[in-house]
Amino acid sequence: MRLMAKIAVLAALISGNVQAQTPDIDPIVTPLMQQYQVPGMAVAVFYRGKTTFYNYGVASKTTQQPITNETLFEIGSLSKTFTATLASYAAVQHKLQFSDTASHWLPELKGSAFERVTLLNLATHTSGTPLFVPDAVTNQQQLMAWYQHWQPSAPPGTQRVYSNLGIGMLGMIAAKSLHQPFRQAMEQQLLPAMGMHHSWVQVPPVEMKNYAQGYNKQDQPVRVTPGPLDAEAYGLKSTSADLIRWLAIQTNNVQIDPEWRRAIAITHQGQYHTEAFTQAMMWEYYSLPVTQHTLVAGNSGQRIMQGMAAQPIRPLQPAPQQAWYNKTGSTNGFSTYAVFIPSEHIAVIMLANKWFPNDDRVVAADKIINMIKGRD
Asked: Which of 49-53, 114-118, 141-145, 302-306 has the lowest mean pLDDT?
């Protein structure tokens, strides 16, 4: 594994795609890959204007193609932060308001529980909708029928319940307000505006050679399966180069169009307090200083699978700079973890072509950030 990591780095250095690897994070990443038999990982660190790439292992065990910062990974639920930003941009453009009800935008849901669910609820996991699209729902007609009959177990805005169905609906509505299909709105508006030119909802044929092979817990090759709301909730594929730029944008260290900058800022604003963290628009944050134990607990699978009480923040406060913002992401064959700390101008993206637990991702990122900061 270590030899393959060095080969991947050498290849990237030759192509001019990576800076010198300082500090050495091998002692953090290599044992993690060995523990979970992860074929390949890409880690990128942004710190005070400098980006460093760390590439390990292979994109495919069959081809032995090395990981580079241009390898495409499925980023899972990190996609949700892009969907929330697209909706925020639509709000900045006065195309929608987060106080709108979902049924206002989807007339077929008139008279349903979505008369009481706002777009803000959809953007903050407080709609009450469950995590997964039911297996029996395989098309748009069945999806809308399911929404029509759904009933919340608690009033919207009182519980934080992690939900693909909620953010998926927000993506549908944002795209509708922009008069484009969701994929086009993402690939033709948001991603180019961010300077992310190697990220896609649907990977084009010419880029398939860069698309890593994912591996499930049984080491079987897998890739994400298309289905209702996949694009909106967990469907983006991206590279460490594009994603570290995405995170550097979050820290306000990359210039973008002012209206997109306003949209980004809106997604950072805390909307609900929970027992574990503050819920913004898909981003979750922890005020600094924060312990590793707190970060691990907040990102645990239990937090995803079980709801918790949510208290609205009123009046709204400016998004804090001294905070650890993060988002996990997974598909059956890929793992992602993204962190940025605005006040310290630091961000980390971790990508792997095999699933492994959130806890280990958080611990590794925390160690990397402490190592980077410790060099000052």
From this structure: 302-306
- What tokens does 75 get? 């980023």
Q: What are the structure tokens assigned to 348, written together? A: 């980390």
**Both structure tokens of 289:** 């200083």
Euclidean distance between the first and the last CA atom of the chain, given in angstroms as a whole number: 30
For residue 216, give the DSSP letter: -
- Burial group, residue 139, by CB count within 10 angstroms (0-12, 13-18, 19+): exposed
**Is the separation of the CB atoms in 364 and 29 below 8 Å?**
yes
Residues with a known catalytic role: 77, 162
Q: Please write the tens of the pLDDT for every residue from 268-278.
A: 999 999 999 99
pTM over 0.90: yes
> How is residue 293 written in tokens?
């134990």
The DSSP result for 240-305, as a single string, is: HHHHHHHHHHHTT-S---HHHHHHHHHHHS--EE-SS-EE-SS-EEEESS--HHHHHHHTSHHHHH
> Which tokens hold the place of 366?
């925390």
Q: How far is Cα 251 from Cα 215, in angstroms, rounded to an integer?
A: 32
- Greatest CA span in the chain, whole angstroms? 61
Using CA atoms, how far apart are residues 258 and 263, in angstroms rounded to an integer?
A: 9
Residues 286 and 341: their CA atoms lie apart, in Å, by 10
DSSP secondary-structure letter at 315? Answer: S
Q: Give the amino acid at 287.
A: S
pLDDT band at 49 (very low <50, low <70, confident <90, very high): very high
